[in-house]
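Note to self: keep these together.
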Amino acid sequence: MSDNLLQRSVTTATARNLANTTKTSPKMMSITPRWLLSLLPWVQVDGGTYRVNRTRRELPKAERIGIDVSGGVASFVPESLRSVPLFSKLPDPILSRMAGRFTTEEVSLGNKLVGEGEGTNKFYVLAQGQVEVLSKGVHGSDLRLALLSEGEYFGESDLVGDRPSEVTIRTITPCVLLTLSRKDLDAVLAEQPNLADDFQRAIAEHLALQSTVNRYGERNIDLVSGFAENVEIPETFVDYSERPREYSLSAVQTVVRVHTRVSDLYNGPYDQLQEQMRLTIEGIKERQEWEIVNNQKFGLLHSADPAMRISTRYGAPTPDDLDELLALVWKKPAFFLAHPKAIAAFARECTWRGVPPPTIDLFGVPVITWRGIPLVPCDKLEMKNKYSGNRWYGTTSILLLRVGDADQGVVGLHQAGIPGEIMPSLSARLMGLDSLGVASYLLTLYFSCAVQTDDALAVLENVEVGYYHDYDHRGIYGFQDGSGI
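Structure:
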């Protein structure tokens, strides 16, 4: 419009001064659905401490050996050899001497470390990389029994026996191995007169104990069945763990400060104190979900038993990998928990194989499933290694949970009914006013998480989320004959 034209109406810029502005409440990008908090059953913990009583394990369970890699050199502390059940009762002097005899070996991809029917007389600890454990099936094909990764081990029985190996073990990535040969072990036991006797006694005690326990390491319950007469009924009892694990409620706290002048004068159309509280509580609940996943003491990633941890076969999460998780948590699995990019990577693998996963409605949102179990997205399962261009790349983990106290599953812990409660186990207390007229409110959330039995939680590790398939030669929709749109 030219400047010489006469103004014929009030301008929109001026008219806005007389109009009301429609406002929204404050929005925050970091708010997520937090479905994990909704799906976990919550148990009331009145005393502030939750004790998980279990039956006593007579046989130590296998743990991963903690490997320290610094300066390109892999090592471990001698005490970590007790993570190997066969070595759990060895005296400290023997463990120290054994740890000092380990040598480092670097092995390339595709090398056979142990052959079926062969004897290596060597104990291996994986410092880096992955190896595959295979066995011949009844039809002559190689069947995969296990996939071992960092901290896992094999060949310990070869140090104390001469039975040929029943499996084939080969590397599927370049590996760094810490090894102890039978010759080195014999040299250790020959250093002092009594070491060999102590070693044999500890091994014999462990082997004798194996015949009295079940596959979970618990004492067998002696029973008799059948219709035979004049059979003496055995006596038995179930022993409990002497040191059950206890979970103390953790706390997330912060102080919200609001100037009284703000809350007095600028409360329309939104209450300033209420909005400050709401947004802060959203941040507290986000931190609660992060702690339940990642906390070093009670977080799900750190609470999974080593026997319930598996690695992906090829990096990308495949239907086979999720089936392996279901084989571990087969007693009433409730849901998978995965980063959204891990779910997308799994969906790509399903599309590539022509088995798109079905969806179900969860809290009003479509969620994909596998074998009827929903894959629940959670961005608290963080990515490792790479962050570029405001996007995450690298590896993550996928969890599978069984939940509920009745099913010996995973449960959330809280204490409802605390003073000043505004939500279950979340309190807000006025701390007072300072000399400047600023009011302070203490917000506190008490919570924790407990895994009641080891088989209630499994973890799929080393999940690569950055792999994409090339569909050019198969058509847009990936049909094998190349047809498509």
